[in-house]
Amino acid sequence: MRKHFIIILSILAVVQIEKVFGQRNVNISGTVKDSVSKMPIGFATITLVSDNSDSSSRKTLADESGHFLFSNINTNTSYSLKITAVGYTSTKMQLPSIISAASKDIFAGEVLLHPIANQLHEVVVNTASRNPVRQEADRITYDLSADPESNALSLLDMLRKVPLITIDAGDKILLKGSSEFKILINGKPSALVVKNPSDLFKSIPASTIQKIEVITIPPAKYDAEGLVGILNIITRKKEGQGYNGSISTAYNSVLGPSINFNGTAKQGKWGISGYLGYSDVISETTGYGYNNLIFNVPGALSPRGSGTIGSGGTLIFLSDLVQQGNKSFKGANQYGSADISYDVDSLNLITLSLQYYGGNFVQGNYLLSNEVDQNNNLLQSYILNNNGGSAYTNSDLSFNLQHGFRGNKEKLFTASYKYSIQDYGQRTDAAYNQTFNYDYPNNKQYDNSGTAEHTIQLDYVFPLRHLSVESGLKAIVRNNFSGFSTDNLNSISGQYIPDTSMSNNFNYHQNVFSAYNTYKWMYNSLQVNAGLRLEHTSNNTAAISGINGVNNAYNNLIPSFSLLKTFSNSNSLSIGFTNRILRPAIWQLNPFTDKSNPLEVSKGNPALQPVIRHSFEMNYTYSSKGTITAGLSYGFSNNSIEHVSSITNDTVTLITYQNIGSNKSAGFTLNTSYPFFKDLTVNLNALSNYVWLAGYYNGTQYRNQGLQGHISFSAGYNFKGGYHAGADLQYETRYILLQGKDNNYYYLSISGSKEILKKKAVLSFYISNPFTRFRKMDYLTNTTDFNLYNYDNIYSRRINISFRYKFGKLKGMISSSQHSIQNDDIGEKSNH
After folding, report:
1. 479 φ/ψ angles, rounded to the nearest 5 degrees
2. Which of 9, 35, 71, 79 could crosslink 465 through cysteines, CB 3.0-4.6 Å?
3. Which residues touch 54 (CB under 8 Å, ≥6 apart)?
């Protein structure tokens, strides 16, 4: 009996050993894509179902590139995958049996999801019913392929639909009501958007853009610059062997003609993609004005030097300065970009990127200036004719070497180098006539400024079971430069004589060294992003006559955290926080004094210090037939750079920049999209911010606070036969400034498009603000010494007609480096 018991135990042990050691674990991976556009679908929910029990064994989320991975899966059964994503029909696919112990890791391939549509007509998916807005853990993405109006609008006009983005009356791009953010092209800084991205985006067809990302909690792999976030523009890149491209041409009643070429080609291991564009801005002539009520200026001279005024702070009316005139503007832009790739082998990739943006402009100003006292007696007057021009070039050259690893194709090492040069020059020629009690010489001013920088970066990506780790090192060596001069006309000799007090050279050297670590953890319906970035910055200003030098260094540790929890196919919640840095740019540091209007001069401040901003946010998304996304945010900084004005001792208004105080804001955002009918979709995009500003300037404390924001409605309707019509209505409140407020405005646009030539071409038009030819941009500045009101009239009504033609065919894939240099550590220029 004992012998039989031992035999039975031995048999059971062998069976158990066979069960344990015969079992083998494998990895299952794949990529989720849109069945129409073939573009990746980020953050889809993938459920791994055991066929034996027909129950969910595991869940995970795809990353932003649509890739998913299940690790250490038991081979003793077979499985199927269920894939769901907001705005798409769910699908289920059977995986091949993996019972064999010899089974290898399984790649499920490209899993295609179909956009939700009520009916298919001629194999055309009704993309109007698919919400283009998607909330992710650290960003909001707007998918232009889901918006038919992208065939008719420019990129700038399409940005009006993107949550958290507004375009002000002067076509300035704002994120959360602020201009302090970074713009990237395909995840990289670009020479195309350094100077004035609005001008470029006016001439780029939205049809060349795949999607727009608003990154509000940037991961630690990005430079810490951009106080309120990052705007990332992802261009379309047709991939594969052969060639593919499109050519677009347009005429705008205000901006003039433009042409844009976008193409991709692949032959063997070589691939190239890029675009070229040109726009010719026709001559514009608009009016502008300026009204300055000047009060008590203690210790200053009264107007035109007739004696001292001021009595210990008593408010005394001095004068009313009224200026009116008109200005003309004409110019042209040229831009281009090329990305060249070479697949050395299956593990190594070399890429080269070239970018260029340049422009030349001619401008002329006519100004009538009168200053009167409290009894309306004329104190001084003159007529100023100020002609000039500007030219700028921005160029980038970057090189990337990417190396993969045989044991894990997801593990990557990338080494990158980039050289950037930005050069901006301006000139003015001022002539005065019909002067009364005013003696200021005719003059010519010149300024040439820019930045040259070298960047080296190393990135390493190491994916684990549920965790992806990224690390990197980076060094930026930057030289900001400015050379400026003023020549005054000698009335006796008739010659222009250099004014040494208004001539100088300015060099600002800055080095930024950084290291980062980021972690992305995905498990079932939860995604967590966390990271730290350490930056060391050193600044040095060369000794310049009359300007205090800057020689300092500082360290910043920047945390970043975001979490996305998906509760079901219909709702999700994300939270996050981060710190961001604003380093002053050359145009803010440049001490050049612009006297194109001698009674309202402006200059930079070489002593500006960087700004640290702390940001928190929470967003909730619900999706069913329609989608609603609502969010709360709060941010603050304690040494903000503010645009400030003061009256100098000769009653000239001086405009400059100062680190002067705190900037706090609490915001609420709302975005909804709802398909009322099969072919009609309506969108609402709203932002509300309450802002608190406080600081000291010239011994006076300023405080300002209030509610600001915008709201926009857009609707699109698809007709049979390839027709589409759309409309957009927008209102933006006045935005709060430390010493006043800027302008508010309304915006209305109507668009339409028609597919022709067997859907290879699109003919489109749009008209903006059809009922108003001009829009007044006005700014209010209130101080203890003066009340200033100035305005500019700009063309408001614009009619645009465009034509786009697609050609070529591609098969296969073209490669691009997954990591590259991203210099986003310098502030953007602000109009506020």
Report:
1. -125, 110
2. 71
3. none
Who contacts 311 (Cβ-Cβ below 8 Å, separation ≥6)?
Answer: 296, 298
507, burial (CB in 10 Å: exposed 0-12, middle 13-18, buried 19+): middle
Residue 501 CA to chain centroid, in angstroms?
39
Answer for the pair 604, 587: CB distance below 8 angstroms, yes or no: yes
C-beta of residue 618 within 8 angstroms of C-beta of residue 629:
no
Q: Which of 705, 710, 697 is nearest to 743 (CA)?
A: 710
The rounded distance, in Å, linking the Cα atoms of 332 and 257 is: 10
Three-state DSSP at 5 gives: helix
Comparing 91-105, 293-307, 715-729, 742-756, the range with the smallest average pLDDT is 293-307
What average pLDDT does range 758-776 have in this prediction?
Answer: 90
User: CA neighbours within 13 Å on the CB side: how many for 403?
Assistant: 7
> Which element (helix H / strand E) includes 671?
strand 653-677
Parallel/antiparallel/unpaired status of strands 653-677 and 600-602: parallel
Quote the CA–CA distance of 115 and 630 in Å, as a whole number. Answer: 23
Q: Which positions ≥6 away from 609 have C-beta within 8 Å? A: 584, 639, 659
For residue 154, the one-letter residue type is: S
Mind giving me the DSSP string for 87-107? TEE-EEEEPPP--STT---EE
Other CB atoms closer than 10 Å to residue 771's CB: what's the count? 8
CB 140 within 8 A of CB 214: yes
CA distance 395 to 405: 33
E strand intervals along 253-269: 256-267
Question: Is the Cβ–Cβ distance between 229 and 216 less than 8 Å?
Answer: yes
Instruction: Specify the pLDDT at position 126.
Output: 38
Q: Is pTM beyond 0.85 here? A: no
Query: Amino acid letter at 626?
Result: G
β-strand partners of 804: 248, 762
CB 631 within 8 A of CB 523: no
Q: What is the 3-state secondary structure (H, E, C) of 183-227?
A: EEECCECCHHHCCCHHHHHHHCEHHHEEEEEEECCCCCCCCCECC
In 3D space, the residue among 216, 215, 209 whose CA is nearest the CA of residue 235 turns out to be: 209
- What is the Cα–Cα distance from 510 to 507, expressed in whole angstroms? 10
Which residue in the block uniquely carries the two structure tokens 């309120």? 228
Distance (Å, whole) CA 658 – CA 693: 13
* Residue owning tokens 């300007």: 547
More confident position, 55 or 229:
229
DSSP state for residue 137 in the 8-state scheme:
S
- 132-152 pLDDT, tens digit each: 888 788 888 888 877 888 877
Based on the number of CB atoms within 10 Å of its own CB, is 50 exposed (0-12), middle (13-18) or buried (19 or more)? middle
How many Å apart are CA 216 and CA 577, to the nearest integer? 9
pLDDT digits (tens, 9 = 90+) for 147-195: 888 877 888 888 888 888 888 777 888 888 888 888 888 877 777 777 6
DSSP 579: E
Residue located via tokens 């007709």: 719
Asked whether 614 and 634 are in contact (CB, 8 A), the reply is: no
Instruction: Give dist(CA 595, CA 573) in Å, integer.
Output: 52
Instruction: Please give the structure tokens belonging to residue 44.
Output: 């889809």
pLDDT of residue 496: 93
- Identity (one letter) of the amino acid at 451? T
